[in-house]
Every structure is written in structure tokens, then in C-alpha cells.
Amino acid sequence: MPSVQTADINTYYVEAGAGPPVVFIHGAVLDHRQWRPQQRALADEYRTIAYDVRGHGRTGGSARARYTINTFVADLDSFIRKLSLDRPVLCGLSMGGCIAQAYAAAFPDRISGLVLVDTFTPELFDRREWFQRSVTLRATIPPVRLLGYERVEKVMVWFQERIEGRQSGGNYERIVNLRANGPKMDTEEFAKVIRALASFHEIPVTLAAISVPTLVLYGEHELAFVRRHAEKLGAVVPDVVIQEVPDAGHASNLDNPEYVTAQLRLFLAERVDYDGLGGQRTSPSENEDTTPPA
Prior knowledge:
Layout: E1 3-6, E2 9-16, E3 21-25, H1 36-42, E4 47-51, H2 69-82, E5 89-93, H3 95-106, E6 113-117, H4 127-139, H5 141-147, H6 149-164, H7 172-180, H8 187-198, E7 214-219, H9 224-236, E8 240-245, H10 252-255, H11 257-270
Parallel strand pairs: 3-4, 3-5, 5-6, 6-7, 7-8
Antiparallel strand pairs: 1-2, 2-4
Helix pairs in contact: 1-11, 2-3, 4-8, 5-6
């Protein structure tokens, strides 16, 4: 299966279809398969590319002692350059959305559009959010070393839903099933990834610099602080559309894949200017697997 050297790692990816490029970035402690429903559906009109972020899936870990969101942004930039992608649209979910927005703010001229799903900005609105995003995330590392991240995450989802009073975790069994059929994440890599996510508030991201058309999606049952960040993005990003995904939690693209895919297709067709490509098909690259991912 294809991989490409990006800095000190070999980044694994799957691509399908031909046309303007769309790059999918998954959430923490998952892999490229999180975006499989949308990648399969959009491959009829677009060159869809989903990759495993450093520390995850078949990309795996590295010898670096510490990661930050900017580490992942640099990896993404190298990945886009190595595949010679011409102004792709970035679609990121949760941690993938953190990576995508940081990239879009730093390199707005290198992309054509941005889709942020169930994610948040670096800003911390209050102490409760600081506790959720920084203290609680870091606190998962010791029990994960003893029990594994699957067990610890189940407890966290249960606890969050009791506090929030809504099914913020969505259909969590879909996440469980994805993990059951994929590579296991190394515990030390888990720790580095979680620390990177927990320190996102330390990364300067100028949201007003995101000049490309942007779509923000969040689940109807999403965590309260994520909903607040959707409003923040709507207030600060110059060209943005915000949509609530019905009957969905924190992985809304899996909870309601048909709705998310339809919104993506509409956004790509009507809002994104591919610098003259106009959404028309182009010839597949020689590295392309035109078979939709299994």
C-alpha cells in the first residue's frame, strides 16, 4: 500500500478517484478509515486522499520525544508537497480539525477550501473547558499505561455524557469497530499525541488569516465547548458556513454519514474555486489507487 517519506516518518495513505484533491485528516487515536464513508462517496468526482497522522495507524510512531499540533502541520505540509497536490481542500475532524485549521491559517494560499468537523480552536473559554481539554486529557495517560486506551476512553465517554446530559459520544460502537480492525496504537505514541492535543491552546493560530471558503460541521449532541467553538469560527473566519449535523455526536461523519457527505459535496461543488479546475476531472496520478478503499 502507498506511503511517502515526510520528514522522519513514512506516512501511509489511501487514495481513490480523480479530479480536484481532497485530503482527509482523522481524529486522535484513530486512523484514515474514520473518513472512509466520505472518501468512498466523493471519489466519483474528486481525488480523495486519507492518511494516517504521525503516531497513528500504519504510519506509526517516531523517535521524537514530543509532538505538538505544529508537528502534525509540518507533516501535512510535507505530505501535500510530496504528492504534488495543487491547492487541495482539507477536511479535518476533532484533532484533524485542529491540524487543518492551523495549516489553513499558516498557509492559506496552499489550499482551496477547509472543512472542520467536531473540532475546536486553541482558545480556552473558561476554566471548565481548560479542565476538559488540558487536565482531563493528560490525566488519561497513567491509566492508559495500565488498562489500554480502549477501556479508558469508554469511561471518559460515559462520564462526559453524564455531565453534558446528551449523547455526545454518538454511536460509540462505530469507533470501537474501527479500532478492532486496525493497527493498535503504541502507548508511548498515545501519550505524545494526547499531550499535543492537550497543549493546542499554546499554539498561536490566526483564524482571521483563513481566507479560503470554510465549512464547519458539528453534531447535534456535541459537547458544549465544541459547539461554542463552532460559533467562534463563524464569528472570526471571513468566509464560513456552519451546519449542525442531526442525530450525531462527536464523530458526526460516522453517526450521520449521509448528511455529512451531502454537505461536503454541496460545499465542494458550490463554494470551492479550484483555480480554474471548476470541479472537472483530471487524469489520475501515477501513485493513485482508483479502487475505493476497502
